[in-house]
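Escalation from tier 1.

The customer reports that the assembly of two entities below gives different structure tokens on two consecutive runs. Tier 1 could not reproduce it. I'm attaching the input and our single run for tier 2 to review.
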Amino acid sequence: MQIVSCNMSVSVDGFISGPEHLDAGFDRVQDWAHRVFAWRDRYGIEGGAQDPDSDLFETLYASIGAYVMGRGMFDTGEEPWGDEPPFHAPVFVVTHRPCEVLKREGGTSFTFITDGGVEQAVARARAAAGDKDVHVSGGAKIVSQAVAGGLVDELHLHVAPVLLGRGMRLFEGLIDTVELEIAGVAESPHATHIRYRAMPTTKAG
Amino acid sequence: MQIVSCNMSVSVDGFISGPEHLDAGFDRVQDWAHRVFAWRDRYGIEGGAQDPDSDLFETLYASIGAYVMGRGMFDTGEEPWGDEPPFHAPVFVVTHRPCEVLKREGGTSFTFITDGGVEQAVARARAAAGDKDVHVSGGAKIVSQAVAGGLVDELHLHVAPVLLGRGMRLFEGLIDTVELEIAGVAESPHATHIRYRAMPTTKAG
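Tier 1 run:
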């Protein structure tokens, strides 16, 4: 069955980065990913550990048929991703600025959704993904909106063993509209991987 | 070897309670604890599950020789704890208001530390605990100070599968002065238990 999932790396104190995007705090939170083969291979970087943390990416990448992201993530990534972005699948970008569909090498396309927000982007991605899953990639705001909107079936948190003290929070201002259930935990020295099933809340309050 | 530990229950989004102390959000975050036998037994409440979550409390309680807490936690707890508080050990309360030592039934005493803050309270608790461990119980501010001050050897987080959206954060304003290492993870349907070893940071920045 097709699911919609998010994967987010966070510090123990709930930050996805320090005060700036892609800063030293971000690097510390993402270190568990940046050190493994599967992640590096996808971004064309040599080396990397072939271990259970890497396997986690292999499994994830193999399952995804389409992506959703916010405009901020697209704008930050477009240049470094280059002519052959690492998605190899349709990507739906939530934005207010209309833009033609961008086709890239290796099967990646970027379609800009200006109407209907993240809900519409997820619907389009679901249709484009076929039998495969949909991944809401980021940033934190789009992920929070998708989770709060009941659009996400599984939330995968990768809790890195770092305290940042300050920075950008994953769930800033999220409203309490979903219930979570622990679907599985994987231990590693580099991060604690917790999978949650998310369901629209049935409780009052 | 004697260690100083903290045990804190937090929501997935990093809150220890909703906006008010001991509110519905607090109950949701603490539910994994309030449902088990070992916790209930200690507070004189009947029933409760006898399962690995309960065993976790048994092991913790058996290891502790002295406690440290903030004045807020003492003030909130003093009345409900009654004549025989659940500690059965010396408790050192960090405060600015001097107060005589309070002796209670069952081996609990409350000593008020007005000089030297949490550092002095931990030192006193270490001496009082003998061969046993010291537990920094709360509230969040004292725990954060103790962690940031390098006074805590092990931080045990119990991540409850709930999103609160708003409330009191565990690590509000914590400064980045410690490094963490994952010491162990225990999975349960009710909370993900992560033990971190904490060490003063050696890195710049």
